[in-house]
Amino acid sequence: MKRHGDIGSGDAALSGEVQAVLDLVGAASDLTIVVGRDRKVEYVAANPQAGLAGLATDWVGRPLQSLFSEESWAKLGPRLDQPDEGPAMELNHAGQVQYEFPVRYVLRGWQDRILMMGRDLRPLAEVQQQLVLAHRAIGRDHEAQRELETRYRVLMEENSFPLLIVSETTGRIVDLNSSAARLLGAARNDLLNSPVAQEFDGRRRGELIESLSRNATSDANSYLDLTVRRTAQRVKINAKLFRAARDRLLLCRIGLSESAQSQEGDRSLMLQNLFEKGTDAIVFLDGNGMIKAANEAFLNLTDSHSQSVVIDRAFSDFLSRGAVDLKVLLDNVRRLGHLRHYRTRLNTDYMGEVSVELSATLFQDRGKQIIAIVARDSVVKDSIVWPSAPGAENEGLRNVMRLVGYSTLKEIVDETTEIIEKMCIEAALEMSGNNRAAAAELLSLSRQSLYVKLRKFGILNKETGDQA
Questions:
Q1: Which domains occur in the chain, in start order?
Q2: Among 345, 67, 158, which residue's Cα sits nearest to residue 77?
Q3: How much is the pLDDT for 381?
Q4: Which tens digit of pLDDT belongs to each residue from 97-137?
Q5: Could you say which DSSP state residue 131 is in?
Q6: Residue partners of 200: CB distance under 8 A and separation at least 6
Q7: The pTM is what?
Q8: Where do the H-state alpha helices sit in 278-407?
């Protein structure tokens, strides 16, 4: 006789005591299985509230192995020999019918049989699956937000017009691009969240925000004429109003006033003429030392036949000491922001050399490092003034010092005395701005060898004493 929730039994009839136990266990579990000594299913009971009865209708009499996936049976099979030992097991049911569902089973030995009491894990699996889907959705939303932020930042930075975003509620700068920061004469981080009124002369916060709001809601294409406090430059501002994150924001587009535009245009024209027609060679490098622009004077100095053989070429190709010269030059200009009177030689495209004096200036252009270099021909006889050490007035000593960087130290020392060796080391240190690593490269020495010679001549102790 089947009770409520029973699916089937292998016996024609069960004793009342046994049936009572099975009814109790079946009521407490979502799925109950009784396994005989031959590891075949003798009895199955499913709790009606679990909804598993329809999946277990034909389990009675089948081998237990046929009810589980291969991975689950690999865990369950060895456990059947000692069912009372070990924790509960999470197993996946699978069979010829296309179904698969997880159940957590507790195994107990009972009257030469094995009693498997299971808890349906499908609700938990569904929750976990929903959680995984939610995490994926959050990840997609996060990536989409990052993409939008990147697009927004690119649009802000690549826009040639200075742009300010100001909160109408607080009157503070919410965001701005690099062009606006340069126009206002301060770093972007210093301007963020600062009151916009303090960046312009003669305007109080309430008055300026009110004027910008009126301009934003006006149909006419009008501008506000203002004076930048830090640079005293006359500008005009046009505003647009929009809402975001429950705040009213003003997108302010800043331009130069007519008079300032005229002055800026004249200055740009003069600088362009200086670049194109100047007698000094001018070249612009990126942060990696690659040439981005060069004038006609530089082409003449290096015997380059056209811009195409110069642009996007490493500047070290034109330096006689190559990467060593470039490293010394870049290190010093990054450290100081500028460099003057750097003596070296430039290679020409026809295997010649020209003695030059370089000046360099570092500046930022749209967040990128640009290094402007002016090269002046110093080929006039005896015009090169090399770094000198005490007592280096003798012309022969000057000739020896000219070999620094073009011959190895060993070759120089073979022809000179220890005094010349010391003078060469001092000259290399001065040329490199006391950068010992660069000085070692100029002298074709290892750092360890240079330090040994610094100690030998007392230069290291002298520098230490000076710093102290």
A1: 6-120 (3.30.450.20), 159-261 (3.30.450.20), 278-377 (3.30.450.20), 395-467 (no CATH)
A2: 67
A3: 39
A4: 556 888 889 898 888 888 898 888 888 888 888 899 999 99
A5: H
A6: 208, 226, 227, 228, 229
A7: 0.42
A8: 296-302, 323-336, 395-401
